[in-house]
Amino acid sequence: MTAARYALPVIFVSWLSALATALPARADVLQQQSFSRWKIMTNCAAAATRQFPDHTPEGNAKRETARLDCLRNHKIPLPAAAPPPQPR
User: Fold this and answer.
1) Is the CB of residue 57 less than 8 Å from the CB of residue 42?
2) Mean pLDDT of the chain
3) Handedness of CA 15, 21, 26, 27 (dihedral sign)
């Protein structure tokens, strides 16, 4: 009788844990927006690195300018220390 008394809660807990692990993880809207912004920022950095691959002071400055221009084009907020755009 004692084993039957504890069987129902054990079955319920095991069913509940199986259900919780079977459900896919879902991100809310703000998290999805954050992920998409981070992806754009990563893509901008990669594109700037492909465009200016050399690691000289001039190449670094051009790469940073290209990265910031890409972020501006995608309307992503710039880092606080970002200088204003240079006239060309």
Assistant:
1) no
2) 82
3) positive
Burial class (CB in 10 A: 0-12, 13-18, 19+), 37: middle
Length reported for the chain: 88
Digit-coded pLDDT (tens) for 35-72: 999 999 999 999 999 999 999 999 999 999 999 999 99
The continuous run of DSSP H or E covering 7 comes out as helix 2-22
Neighbouring C-beta atoms of residue 30, cutoff 10 Å: 8
For residue 12, give the amino acid letter. F
C-alpha torsion angle, residues 31, 35, 41, 43 (rounded to 10): -170
Cα–Cα distances (Å) from 54 to 20, 66, 67, 82, 86, in that order, read 50, 13, 15, 21, 20
Q: Which of 72, 73, 65 is nearest to 49 (CA)?
A: 65
70 close to 44: Cβ distance less than 8 angstroms: yes
